[in-house]
Model the fold of this input.
Amino acid sequence: MKPSWIHVVKGRTARQARVGTIGTFHEELFGRAGFVGPTAMLYHGASPSELLRVEGDTRVRVGTVTQLATSDLDDARGDFEPLLVNSDLKIGISRRCVPMPYCYRNAVGDLLYFVHRGTGVFATEFGPIDYEPGDYILLPRGTTFRHLPADAEGIFYVVESRLPVRFTEHAQIGRHAPFDPAIITIPDVKDYGWPAQDEWELRVKHSAGHTSLFLSNCPIDLVGWKGDLFPFKINIRDIIPIMSDRIHLAPTAWCTFETDTALIVTFLPQTAVTDLTAEELPSNHRNIDCDEAVFIHADKMRPDGILLHLPQAIMHGSKQGDRDAFQATRTTSMRRELTGVSVDAFEPLQPTDAFRNIAGG
Ligand SMILES: [Fe+2]
Done:
């Protein structure tokens, strides 16, 4: 979507949107393509977020995933549980705590794991990737691996993307922010020393289901590899968020990964806006071109392990009472504490029955 350089001002508006507006304006961001397309800041006479009720199926849904009964919770042949899906994405939760006794290959899409809880290793053909909470692990479509959890605590926010997942390039700030690209962990080949077997099962996931191939040799047996297609990990502690102490940046500033039809944004603790007349809370916005699937990894304000679905065209933002209460306690030294991952999908996401069950319908 090409930007337009035609900007028009009608009626009474703030000199700069989001800045010096507290107590004076009720702003709503109306924009295309998430936050990067053509946009208008709308100035309401009253708060636009005072939702009384919804009649219809499309609504904000919130569910806690920490007790979700995924099929991979106690069955090594189970899979992650899709909660929000469209034609390009399956977004869900894995609670795998039983090691895969087979080798695995996903032919449906790239797999991006975000580790909410648990430790273990993805034993890939490229080499082992040890994991801990806060890790993103990207397994390109077709990578052969075994997921070997080390404990029973594992909770993983999983994005299966038909389209390749790549890093977002924040081109105008150079190569060393929001992280130094050299910080990613790329596996090196390893002889895992697994005992000899008469046959090795390679379990392949296609869109129609799983198929098992039985091989005489272990498919994870590389003695070397080279190229620019490989699995890797990065921990969110190594992401240094782009920030401003004068304006609440649009979430695209915190985008870590993207596909042609989705953004994957990492929310991290950071300095809050210090100008007490500028908005610190997110804009009221109606998200007309994307659905958001926001996973809460850690937050002082609420329990962890919450998944929120914020659909297109449904306003979200804080109610005026919450904004007023926040403003009353706000200080110039305040920090944001939320850690989370948001998948912003350009095609609508449909809630699955599993998500409806934990979200109350
Ligand atoms: Fe949003």
Summary: The chain is about 5% helix and 35% strand. The longest strand covers residues 110-117.
